[in-house]
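Subject: for your reference before the review

Hello V.,

The reviewers asked for a structural picture of the protein, and I figured it would be easier to keep everything in one thread rather than splitting it across files. Below is the amino acid sequence we used in the manuscript, unchanged from the supplementary table.
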Amino acid sequence: ISLSEDETTALLSHPQRAYRADADTILLSALSGALGQWHGGNATRILLESHGREPFGDTRDLSRTVGWFTSIYPFTLRSTETDIRQAIRQTKEDLRRIPRHGLTYGVAKYLSDSPPASGPSPALVFNYLGQLDAQSRGNMGEPSQFTFAEESSGPVFGKRVRRQSDLELTAIVSSGRLHVSLTYHPGLHKDETVTAVLE
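And here is what came back from the structure prediction:
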C-alpha cells in the first residue's frame, strides 16, 4: 500500500515534532496496533532490521565506506496501549533500551562462547529503508549521479532460501510517498488477512 504525498508529509513531520520520535518509532507503533487487532495478543516478537549507520558515540569514521551495515536483532513489540500517543511513547522507550541499536547482537550471537538465548521464532521482520528521495540527491540538493533502475531486480529470495520469519514488512519513502509492502507465504496467510493488516 502507499500513502499520498500529503499523508506521508504529515506522518514524517507532525509526530516527529510532537513526540520527538523518528519514522521507525511511528511505523512500529502503528504496526503494534495492527498486530494487536489481528491476533489479539499484547506482544509480538519480531526482528528489526536496520542499516547500521546510526551514530554510536564513538570515534569510528565510516565516511569512506559505501553501503549499509545491516543489523538484524530481536525486539518485543508491545501492543498494550490503545492510545496511539501512549503507544508511540512506549515504543520509543523500548527502542532506547536496545544497546547500540542492535549492532552488537549479531556479533554476540555468532562469535560469542555464550550467544544470546534464541527463544521462539519471530513472527515478522520489520525493515524501514528510510527516505530514499533524500539519498538520491547530492550535495546542495543537486541531482545525484545515481538514480533508481527502471528494470526489475528479479526475485528478492532464492527458491531454496529459508526465511527468518513468516512475514516481512518493508517500508520506504520514494517520490515523496510512503510505500509499505508485506511479504508472506500464501500457504500460511490469506490475501485478505494480509491486506487487512496493511490497511
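For the response letter, the relevant points are probably these. The beta strands are 43-50, 71-78, 124-131, 167-174, 177-184. The mean pLDDT is 80.

Happy to draft the paragraph if you're swamped.

O.
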